[in-house]
Amino acid sequence: MMKTPLEHYFIVHSYPDGFMQSELARWLMSLGVPQNQWRIWRGEDRNNQCSYNAAMKWLLHSQHEYDQFVLCDCDIRPHESKMAEFWSSEADLVGVRYPTECEGAFDHPDSIHTALWRTTRQTMQAVEDEFGTWFEWEYDDQQTRTINCLCQSLVKKAKKLGLTVQQAGYAMHVPRRKVR
After folding, report:
1. Which residues pair with 69 in a beta bridge?
2. pTM of the entire structure?
3. Which CATH number does 5-173 carry?
């Protein structure tokens, strides 16, 4: 069954400047999402993990009527013509595919990354109830290297709970340059 975008609350992560790609704004407008149904989230902490967790906490515990959420980064550019799968997927966590600097990031169809994804209150509440938090960077033992992105901590937690995860749809994204 096709999900209706207007039944979702949208969060746009935009640290540190509060801006977003014009293509993302046009996508929201093309969906007919009114301004009171989306929010630019300028996390007060420069750590993405803290910002993502704070946004999820706000979504789950604030007084709004929505039980379905779309979350995205400010630099994602959805392909309107390639988003039907995103809205029709029945998975508990649904994320679009997009270019990224991480080779093999989308090799497993049951693994998503969080530049553009959707979920439900029920799903995220279950993760919170079991694990206390949603997003965590994973580091090596000496904390000198990131070995897994914060997206994958959510995916792992969801799978441990028996929740479904699926890639669906496509968006553009300018990958960060690798630091050498």
Report:
1. 9, 119
2. 0.91
3. 3.90.550.10
Write out the two tokens for 49. 């993990």
User: Which amino acid is located at 109 in the chain?
Assistant: P
Burial 122-156 (b: 16+ CB within 10 A, else e): ebbebbbeebeebbbbeeeeeeeeeeebbbbbbbb
d(CA 42, CA 67) in angstroms, rounded, equals: 22
The answer to whether the CB of 53 falls within 8 A of the CB of 135 is yes
Is residue 62 within 8 Å of 9, Cβ to Cβ?
A: no
Q: Bridge-partner residues for 120, per DSSP?
A: 68
- Distances, alpha carbon 88 to alpha carbons 1, 42, 51, 73, in Å: 6, 29, 28, 21
In the chain, where the domains are located? 5-173
Intra-chain end-to-end CA distance of the chain, in Å = 45
User: pLDDT tens-digit profile of 102-161?
Assistant: 878 899 989 999 999 999 999 999 999 999 999 999 999 998 988 888 999 999 999 999
